[in-house]
Amino acid sequence: MQISLWFDVFLIICILILAFGALFSKNIFTGIILFISLGLAVTVAWVRLNAVDVAIAEAAIGAGLTGALLLGAWKRLEIKKKALDEEAPK
Known about the structure:
Blueprint: H1 3-23, H2 28-48, H3 52-87
Helix pairs in contact: 1-2, 2-3
């Protein structure tokens, strides 16, 4: 078997594991990091399929921009949660 076939099988398994991990993660931060990693793995898959333009869009939008927005939203949620915990009577 060729090494490229083994790499493609490994890439498919990684994509599936990252997708399930991002969907079923109990921790929000872990899910976001797995989502960003999934976007990067899909980018590599697009490069392997010789669709470089789609790979660039996936890396920029899927992993980069969406990941940054999700991390920003998570940070704002953590700040609001901390503020609500401080206001709650004890």
